[in-house]
Design goal:
single chain, flat, 195 residues, mainly alpha
Length: 195
């Protein structure tokens, strides 16, 4: 049976080898397009840019007085309290909607015996969703003393910068490998122009 890669070969004689190679290459490298064109990969700088932002944040945290740190801690605590309240409200609303629909399904009288399995299926779907939903949104906890909060923030950020730098390095190495992979294939099986 033909696949998406081989279908056109069975349709006409004399299909070019290079087109088949490059169509199959698409499965290995997203920078090969369906029209058998090669685009040079674009290097993404998400983690490199993230490191820049993280280092700025680290400098800012390190420069804070304890009074300034207390203000930042309190703002974060308030924002987390608001987020927790929103998550709780969302979970309650979801449970209410499930139960409202379950009530409607339970009240529904199937039009025939053949439809009873449909009702059972609908009940099973809703009860499964209700029982599998995680209604625990966590808790806020107490505010930490400002010096402890600041130390934890700085320590976490230092570790996070290290992880981001490692990821940026890996992304760059992966980019270079993708470029090399395309270049090697292009030297082995050039794309004929004018197709």
């Amino acid at each position: 049976m033909a696949t998406g890669y081989t279908y056109y070969i069975g349709e006409e004689d004399n299909q070019p080898f290079d087109e088949f190679v490059w169509k199959c290459a698409k499965a290995f490298n997203r920078h090969v397009s369906e029209s058998v064109e090669v685009t040079k990969p674009t290097e993404y700088f998400f983690y490199r840019d993230l490191v820049i932002d993280q280092e700025k944040e680290l400098k800012l945290l390190q420069s804070l007085s304890l009074d300034e740190a207390m203000i930042v801690r309190d703002q974060e605590y308030y924002a987390e309290a608001q987020s927790l309240k929103q998550r709780q409200d969302d979970k309650i609303a979801k449970l209410r909607r499930y139960n409202e629909m379950l009530s409607k399904v339970n009240d529904w009288i199937p039009p025939s015996k053949d439809h009873e399995n449909l009702k059972k299926f609908m009940v099973d779907q809703l009860t499964s969703s209700i029982s599998q939903e995680d209604y625990d949104v966590g808790s806020l906890g107490d505010k930490k003393p400002v010096n402890e909060w600041l130390k934890e923030k700085i320590d976490y950020l230092v570790d996070d910068i290290k992880r981001s730098k490692e990821r940026a390095k890996k992304d760059h190495e992966d980019f270079l490998k993708r470029v090399e992979w395309i270049d090697i294939l292009a030297n082995s099986v050039p794309i004929k122009k004018g197709k």
